[in-house]
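Please think about what follows:
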Amino acid sequence: MTRYIYNHKLTSVVKYALLFYLFTFLPLSVSAQNDARTWMKKGEWAHGFKKAKAHKSLNIDEFQRQYQKNTEQWKTLFSWLRDTDLLTIPKGKHPIPGSTLVASVEDSENSPLEKRNTESHRKKIDFMVVVKGTEGFALLDHESCTVSQMYNEQKDVMRYNYVKEKTNFFNVKSGQFVIFFPSDWHIAKVQTKKKDQTIRVIVVKMDYID
């Protein structure tokens, strides 16, 4: 009887704790997500940059957090993109005035999946805007991945073994951009089903603020 009473009380405590979480913290989480989406739709973060839109894979909550923690750097990026002819700027690395940012203009091609490297970063965020063509990407499933190369602090990269069937493949066409945060283990320049695999993409490494 004593054990039954104890188990009953314990079950009741768990139920009350769960209800407390559901009614206290879950609404706050939903509210935060709604706030991030409203912030995104307002578009003030873009500072007039209208040449590309965010791909649907973007983690809007994390984008808002990083933008608010490092506003000046993101403002500098989008202002440079707004004022630069992305189609005619020469291939190569271009320092962005007034910052430590460097834009890498890449005229390249997608490659078969088996030739592409996986990657994630700890210090930097990958911002990529597709200017011409369609670039193939993949987001890796954390649970099924294992580390193939330990983190290299100098290069800020870690690589993985992954399960293809649990990987999210998607295409990003010209006029779209993607952002990969440290939690986004990814593959870039993956061959698509399109006949033409040539692309122009501009890559900028943004600082990640923990």
In short: The radius of gyration is 21 Å. The first helix runs from residue 2 to 42.
